[in-house]
Every structure is written in C-alpha cells, then in structure tokens.
Amino acid sequence: MKSISKETSATNLTVVTEFLLLGFQGSQLLRNLLFLLFLVVFIATICGNLLIIILVSTTNNLHTPMYFFISQLSISDILLSTNIVPNLLHILLNNGGTVSFIGCMTQLYFFVGTDAFECLLLAVMSYDRYVAICNPLRYTSIMTNIFCVTSIIISWLIGNVFSFINMITTSKLNFCGSNIIDHLFCDLVPLLVLSCSDTFFVHLEILVLGPPSVMVPTSIIVVSYIYIVISVLRIPSSTGRQKAFSTCSSHLIVVSIFFWTIFSVYVFPKREKTWVSSKILSLLYTVFTPFINPIIYSLRNKDIKKAVQQTLHKHISRNKH
Fold first, then answer.
1. Which terminus of the chain faces fewer neighbouring Cβ atoms within 10 Å, N or C?
2. Which residues contact 109 (CB under 8 A, 6 or more apart)?
3. Which residue ranges of the chain lie beneath pLDDT 70?
4. C-alpha span between 82 and 102 (Å, rounded)
C-alpha cells in the first residue's frame, strides 16, 4: 500500500499525511481467527461494563463510593476499548489499514487520556479500601459524595491535560520518511521511531510528566496496601481477616494486571523486546484488561451478583405477568 504524502516546496521534504498500521501480519486464517476472538472479546467488554454501569446506577445497595469508582472504571474501559478495537478489527480484515494523521493523533489522545485516568482512579480506589479497612468508623465522613465526585473530576482533568500535552508535542514532530507503523494502534513509542525530527522535547516531556503520572498513583497504592495488610494481620480471627481482605482482593487483582502490563511496555528496559512481544503486551491492557475487569468484579463480588439476580428476577416476573 502506497503512503499518501505531500511535498513542501520550501524544504523539499515528503511530509506524511497518513500512517499505515500493520497490526498482526500472518496468514488469512490466523487473521480471521484473531478477528473473531477480538470481536467476541469487544462485544463482551462493552456488555459487561455497561451491565456494571447500569447496575450501579439503578441498585440502591450499590450506591456506595466503592461501586461508584467501579462504574467509573467501566466507563474508562469502554472508552479505551472503543478507541482501539474497532480499528484493530478493520486492520485484521484488510491485512493492514491506513489512518489519517489527525485520526492517529486523536487515537493517541484518547489512549493516553484513558490510561492516565485509570492510573489515578486505581489509586483513589486503593485509598477508599484503606479508609474502609483501617478507618472504618470515619469512612462515611471521609468518603463523602463531594470527595468522590471531586476526585473523579480531578482524575479526568489530569488525564486529559496530560494526554493533550502529549498529543500536541507529538503532532509537532515531522514525519517525512516511512509512514508504516508496525503496531496495533497509534502509540507514542512507534511514532517516535518514525519521526525524522528531533524528539528531545517529547522525551523531556515524558521524563517530566511520565514518572509522576505513574509513580505517584503506584506509591499511593503500595502505601495503602501496606497499611491494609498490617491492619488485616492485626485482626484476631481468621474469618475476620479473610472477610477484610476479600473486600479489596478484586481491586488488587485489577491493579496487578494493569500496572504489570504498563510497566512491561513503558518502564522496564526494552533491549530484548521485539515488536511482536510489545504488540502482545499492548493487547493485554487495551483489549483484554477492559474485558477481564467486569468479570473479576462480578465473579468475586456478592453485591453485584445479588444485583444481577434481582434484576433478572424482576424481568422474568414482568414477562410472566
């Protein structure tokens, strides 16, 4: 597929106006199987997360800070999944696909924004679990509606500001050589590899904004769970310890999956990492994590399972009458 570009008379450079995303290169059978797998996962992701959002908004028992945060996580997962998967399905069907420069920057913006928000949200959720287990008597006075809504608004704002800065600095780069991105979507690392201009300021921005956006939430999560573990171990009965830890085990699983994949792709050294392994790791947090999150929260949560049963019972009763 030819690159679509334009020539600038002043500099006589061929400026890229479209990118070609390769996705997974392989036989038609392999790509068809991957297409079916990702399509099923995408549909299940949207349905699962929408179910959680509907249950939390319509069930009185779920009108608590923890479930409010879980519903926000579901919104973030839907945004992330719809930003990545439909275009990925198109690429698989066509053995690659073009995306305009503006479209690429838009995808990068939503990708970085939802990821940054999720980092902050998971930190807020860990603080919620810390207060619930370590300060249960003060829980209602600390985790007020105002605090919950404010923390979500701030998290969305920080995520959007970070992604906007990231998008602007990336869009200012010159792309005048190859337009082929050997990746599943418009991510920052493969775009920097393609750029034919100095990427110093983008790398500087990553060094300045990157560590706080990942390390600060990670630190909050680690410190919260240190206090949680200490408090749980002080509970005399094993039943009490198990009950206390079960309230935050789902969140801990989600945190572990999300941050392990983020650190694997962006933080840990990449000397021995191939584009294939990067693609597989990227799939974990862009396609499979949004799919797994509602499963973890619904399978391991009695309140959500009870809300599902009540909703189904209401619909069955209405149909009978």
1. C
2. 163, 164, 166, 167
3. 1-14, 267-275, 299-300, 315, 317-321
4. 17
Helical spans, DSSP H, in 26-172: 28-58, 65-94, 101-134, 139-142, 145-171
| Residue 277 token pair | 């392994």
Q: How far apart are CA 57 and CA 286, in angstroms?
A: 25
Asked if residue 241 lies in contact with residue 233, where contact means CB atoms within 8 angstroms, the answer is yes
Q: Which residues contact 235 (CB under 8 A, 6 or more apart)?
A: 241, 244
Number of H helices, E strands in the chain: 11, 5
Rounded to the nearest 10°, the torsion over CA 256, 259, 262, 266 is -120
This prediction's pTM = 0.86
Answer whether 186's CB lies under 8 Å from 175's CB. no
Amino acid code (one letter) for 283: L
pLDDT of residue 244: 74
The owner of tokens 């999300």 is 258
CA 216 to chain centroid: 17
From the CA atom positions of the chain, what is the Rg in Å? 22
Tokens of 92: 């698989």
Looking at residue 290, its pLDDT comes to 92
**CA gap 83, 124 in Å, rounded:** 24
β-strands 5-8, 13-16: how paired?
Answer: antiparallel
Output the CA–CA distances (angstroms, integers) from residue 259 to 86, 187, 289, 303, in the order listed: 24, 17, 11, 26
Provide the β-strand partners of residue 99.
Answer: 19
pLDDT of residue 103: 93
How many CB atoms are located within 10 Å of the residue 247 CB? 15
